Amino acid sequence: MLSVLRDAGWPIWPLLATSVLCLALIIERLFSLRRSQVAPAGLVTQVLEMVRNRQDTPEAVARLERNSPLGRVLAEVLRQRNLPREEMRGAVEDTGRAVAHDLNRYIGAIGTIAVVAPLLGLFGTVVGMIDIFGSYSPTGGDPAQLAHGISVALYNTGFGILIAIPAMIFHRYLRGRVDDYMHQLENAASRTARVLAAPAAAPARRRVDEDENLFSPRGAALQDPLA
């Protein structure tokens, strides 16, 4: 390995630093985007049970917000459930955008590395070509310098491509994973909002039915003792 680094020349060091950074970001994102970290199983059911038992105190909602990104969205639904539908939707969407921003953290950097790594490899290729042309002189060429220039050019090109391919793969994979999580969070928020709205809608429907019975001809006959 040391001989490879020596033959690749100094341009290989930026590539190595880039590869270490890329690996660290990928590991961090894979750890942070685990399902248990983002959308714990059964959390929606727990929240609905908490509401049914009237345990949705401000302290409980604050704990829910700290639980996970899904908990953060559901906590916003609970806080804004008494607002008109459009205002509630806007508040929850704002929280969703903030959650999406957090989930996408560092993924853009991985994509940038996938683009920059081949350029760094190309830079190493140019440095190697300069060494190759520098090996020629009117009295003849220096075989050792020529071989070193070729090594620098080829090693850096290969390392740049080697870094870019997995970086691009993980960039696409992580973006898809975040999109899938955001779809799940949106569905969970919609489901929770519908369930929370149902108890409030039921009394309203009962009042409408009573009004219809009271003011309909049949209802009037039932209410008037002289009929």
Q: How would you explain this protein's 3D organization?
A:
The chain is mainly α and 227 residues long. The termini are far apart. Helices cover 84% and strands 0% of the residues. It has one domain. The protein is built from ten helices and no strands. Residues 201-227 have low confidence and may be disordered. The longest helix has 73 residues, at 143-215.
State the main characteristics.
single chain, 227 residues, mainly alpha, rod-shaped
Which helices and strands occur, and which strands form pairs?
Elements: H1 2-8, H2 12-32, H3 35-38, H4 43-52, H5 58-67, H6 69-79, H7 85-103, H8 107-134, H9 143-215, H10 217-223
